[in-house]
Design a protein that fits this description.
about 300 residues, Helicase, Ruva Protein, domain 3, 2 domains, two-stranded antiparallel ribbon, 10 strands, about 25% helix, DNA-binding
DNA sequence: CTTTTCTCCTGTATGC
DNA sequence: TGCATACAGGAGAAAA
């Protein structure tokens, strides 16, 4: 499941392969890939066709291609700029495809270029990912995702502000970590890793934690994602690959996520799994004592 | 307004 | 072997 580090790896790969290229056309297969675009697939294609990729940006788990009018050549010459906004969802992949290569399964979009070089394919098995076109708003952020908060690596990230909002929140800390409107980029895996590192159970109410502890949890989130990024992302399963289709060449050691039954690296207590927010949460019951209200507290 | 639950989707693994 | 079920879960809509 691509979270911030994995999306950043994809962004860098895209920078290497499609930055500066002129998009000749985009072939959208089916309606789902453009379901977040207000005008639908045909309008999206109209806006992306014949543009040039000026840059590739990311905030949290979203990435976007900044596009300028392909005919003007010079973006400063007045070509209106907009962005092709992409979310990979759970299984979205970008693949650079040379001519003659078999098309990947579950291909939902194909970008072709004026230079006649390799095309860019978006494939997505579970179809939670998608494309949308958006005007650029304040600070160069697409208007469509203006509600997404800065991620921990963004210069605009204000951790003290995040902590201030967390302490007034009547909700479990893990919900806060997963709230992309509060701090972006953290998904289920890195949330569990950050909580394990900070020795806090995810079902603890955020308002019952001190600002120092909340700050520590956020520090750990940034740290674990930074480590994953330094390794080139974390390969959770075969659904995550880079733009060349390579997978599993890096391996951040996960200490909590997916480690049910294995001894905690700190204290040896078997890692537990509980259901929380319609997903799995992994934690050490000794290092991360559950709150009394939690069902996990009973055993 | 705040917070929680539901829904979208398909390949893989597991149980009977 | 075949069929049913659980699971993976991001994000926005809908509900509470």
């Amino acid at each position: 499941m691509p979270e911030l580090p994995e999306v950043e790896v994809v962004r860098r790969g895209l920078e290497q392969h499609v930055l500066g290229r002129h998009i000749r056309d985009v072939d959208l297969r089916g309606h789902r890939v453009a379901r977040r675009h207000p005008g639908g697939a045909s309008d999206l294609a109209d806006r992306v066709r014949d543009t040039q990729i000026q840059s590739i940006q990311r905030r949290g788990k979203y990435l976007w291609f900044v596009l300028s009018d392909g005919r003007s050549g010079d973006p400063s010459a007045g070509g209106e700029m907009g962005a092709l906004v992409v979310h990979l969802g759970m299984s979205g992949q970008f693949r650079v495809c040379e001519h003659g290569m078999p098309e990947p399964r579950h291909t939902h979009a194909v970008l072709t270029f004026d230079d006649g070089g390799p095309s860019l394919v978006f494939a997505d098995q579970r179809t939670f990912g998608g494309f949308a076109f958006s005007e650029l708003g304040a600070h160069g952020i697409p208007a469509l995702i203006a509600h997404i908060a800065p991620d921990p690596f963004d210069p605009a990230y204000d951790q003290r502000g995040v902590v201030r909002r967390l302490v007034t929140r009547n909700s479990a800390i893990k919900r806060g970590l997963l709230d992309q409107g509060l701090v972006s980029g953290i998904g289920n895996i890195y949330a569990d890793e950050a909580l394990w590192r900070a020795r806090v159970h995810g079902e603890r109410m955020a308002s019952t934690l001190s600002k120092a502890v909340l700050g520590r949890i956020l520090d750990q989130a940034r740290e674990v994602m930074g480590e994953a990024l330094a390794q080139g992302g974390t390969s959770f399963d075969a659904l995550y690959v880079n733009v060349n289709g390579e997978s599993g060449y890096f391996d951040l050691r996960l200490r909590a996520y997916g480690q049910e039954g294995r001894p905690c690296e700190r204290c040896g207590t078997p890692i537990r799994r509980e259901h929380f927010m319609n997903r799995s949460s992994f934690f050490c019951p000794r290092c991360q004592p559950p709150p009394r209200s939690s069902k996990a507290a009973s055993t």
